[in-house]
Amino acid sequence: MRHLLRRIFFYLAAVWVAITLNFFIPRLAPGNPAQALVARLAQKGPVPPEMLKAVEAAFGINSSMPLWQQYFVYLGDLLRGNFGMSYTYYPNQVSDVIGQSVIWTLILGGVAVVLSFLLGSLIGAVLAWKRGSLGDSVLVPLMNFLSAIPYFWLAMIIVFYLGFVLRWFPFSDGYDLDLDIGLYPEFIGSVIVHSILPALTIVLSSIAGWMLTMRNSMVTTLSEDYVLMARAKGLSSRRVMFAYAARNAILPNISGFAIAIGGVVGGQLMTEIIFSYPGIGYSLLQAVQGQDYPLIQTIFLIIALAILGANFLADMLYVVLDPRVRQERSA
Predict the structure, then answer these.
(1) Residues 6+ apart with CB under 8 A from 127
(2) Could you tell me what percent of the chain has a pLDDT over 90?
(3) Domain of life, per the record (predicted)?
């Protein structure tokens, strides 16, 4: 119980730091959203001088208010669940913009990350168990090569060959734009087909890391005394591999998986841009370009909370998976 309270206090402090940085960092950039919008309008033609004040009034920007006072106003709005109005998607509320984007990101990134984690960990465990086999000799160098390729470059290769050349799958948008959004078979099928290439990119770019980490950890675990004792007892190979070796070897991957799951909320920015996928990562890019403080702050806050929450769950999962952790924390 003491450990749980200590971890809760730590994560609450981390949330406060994240909120504070989330407020100040976007405001380090020169100018404000109204000035950015007026500058873009000025590129298309003359803009009257009073336009800036009119846009600031529409956005609710008070440039005369001290920064510390804006900070406390921001904290008060957060406590009330008021995330403000999006400047980029004016006059839509930030909650509406994120609500529309985060679903696409969770569907794409969540499924892809879980799939790559499960496949990578399973393949890594099997390769370590059969170390020195043909599969181990071929897959390890291949995965090392694959992990060195930037995922956005891999995405462009997949778009070119599977999209342009072979035309096996669509390579833009999250669904067929001729369809109405809804939970009916034709739309769901369109979403699945449009998500295959971006999901394949995420899986191929991340599976190598999971596999190599699991294999190396598994090789070390196989030499432990408790694994040798399990073999000496005559237990089946499958039970020794999964119940004794893999259960402990997967612990380093748990922390990485927690961070990866938390990072899913932020979206795979370059992948979403390349595939024109309507996720939260693309919304973040638009917000940064338009200095959309409310949208930037809310997206970063959601990312921070997701990562902290995933790490907290990983801490709790460590207690379940590793008996040594339970003994140390109960001492």
Answers:
(1) 133, 135, 136, 139, 140, 211, 215
(2) 0
(3) Bacteria
Residues of the domain holding 61: 22-79
Q: C-alpha 208: how far from its chain's center? A: 17
Closest CA to 272 of 116, 94, 109, 86: 109
C-alpha dist (Å) from residue 50 to 47, 54, 64, 89, 292? 8, 6, 17, 22, 21
Tokens of 290: 């338009």
Report d(CA 99, CA 120) in Å as an integer. Answer: 31
Largest CA distance in the chain: 85
- The model's confidence at residue 331, banded by pLDDT at 50, 70 and 90, is very low
How far apart, in whole angstroms, are the C-alpha atoms of residue 209 and residue 184? 37
pLDDT at 175 over 80: no
The H-or-E segment that residue 112 falls in is: helix 111-129
Residue 214's domain is classified under what CATH number? 1.10.3720.10
Neighbours of 85 (CB within 10 A): 20
Q: Are 35 and 174 members of one domain? A: no
Q: Is residue 129 part of a domain?
A: yes
Q: What is the DSSP letter of 166?
A: S
Nearest Cα to 274, choosing from 156, 109, 112?
156
Tokens of 265: 């909320």
Going by the DSSP 8-state scheme, the letter that residue 178 receives in this structure is T
Average pLDDT over residues 208-212: 83
Residue with tokens 């009034």: 57
- Bridge partners of residue 93, in order along the sequence: 85
Examine the domain organization and report whether 122 and 41 are in the same domain: no
Global pTM?
0.67
